[in-house]
Amino acid sequence: MFDKATMLLKVDPLILSALEEDITSEDVSTNSVMPDETLGEVDLICKEDGVLCGMQVFERVFTLLDAGTEVTWFCEDGKEIKKGELIAKIKGDIRVLLSGERTALNYLQRMSGIATYTRSVAALLKGTKTTLLDTRKTTPNNRIFEKYSVRVGGGSNHRYNLSDGVLLKDNHIGAAGSVTKAIKMAKEYAPFVRKIEIEVENFDMVKEAVEAKADIIMLDNMTHEEIKTAMEYIAGRAEVEVSGNVTKENIAALTDLGVDYISSGALTHSAPILDLSLKNLHAIM
Question: Angle 211-213-219 (CA atoms, 0-180°, nearest 5)?
Fold first, then answer.
């Protein structure tokens, strides 16, 4: 995901925008105590147990400020890290280390938090046929980072954006006039290689979606018994996704249903950050 082309086309402008948000003209605090270039080193320390994610983004923050910055890593993305563990050492101009610190940590803490939360949720589906999916409920301009973090944590990505797949939700159905009309119009418009997914909220809509030959039926905010009834009716005639306020606290109750997918916006919109810190900054003589 973070090859050179992606870095240049997608990631670099986003990171530069984040840096510009934090440094509009200069870093007054740093420049007041460090007027001249001085080589230094600082430690990246883990302050709580979790899953590391976002190494390349963290490093890129510093190298965009100064290509000569060096980061020595002692672990890799996807590794479980422990409180007190030394994750990396960053060496470079102290002014760069100070100015890039917060932006770099914001990315790394956020991405590691999502990976950590996702792994804890994915563990609850272990041994089932169900795939854990994220949603488009992401922070604006941070989707590429957050969806990557879900994958590192053991989840899978739903469509990346509105151009990536057909998903007919309640308001699309309302605009079209019915489930049947929405599916028919989508099949006529979308390329034949695209699957048609539709969101339904009750059993009558399930029956209509099956009869209209939807490829994927999303059962939204249904009870356990309603999902079970819907699954028995669908009987393999479409793939089934379950969605609607799915969290770590309630996903276990869905594991016996045998659905193909469970999507959870909580993976990205509710994951807490993982506490990481830059410590022990010192000059290198």
Answer: 85
| Options 10, 89, 137, 207, the catalytic residue | 137
Q: How far apart are CA 67 and CA 86, in angstroms?
A: 23
Q: Could you confirm whether 137 is annotated as catalytic?
A: yes
Residues 210 and 101 in one domain: no
Domain check: are 138 and 204 in the same one? yes
User: Which structural domain range is residue 187 located in?
Assistant: 122-269
pLDDT tens profile 33-53: 999 999 999 999 999 999 999
Question: What are the Cα distances from residue 51, in Å, to 87, 88, 109, 114?
Answer: 11, 15, 10, 9
Handedness of CA 38, 43, 47, 48 (dihedral sign): positive
Examine the domain organization and report whether 249 and 133 are in the same domain.
yes
Contacts of 199 (CB under 8 A, 6+ apart): 167, 168, 169, 170, 173, 218, 220, 243
Say yes or no: 236 and 143 in one domain. yes
Whether residues 51 and 80 share a domain: the answer is: yes
Q: 168: which strand partners?
A: 198
User: Tens digits of per-residue pLDDT, 159-211?
Assistant: 999 999 999 999 999 999 999 999 999 999 998 889 999 999 999 999 999 99
Q: What is the CATH number of the domain that holds 67?
A: 3.90.1170.20
Do 104 and 130 sit in the same domain of this protein? no
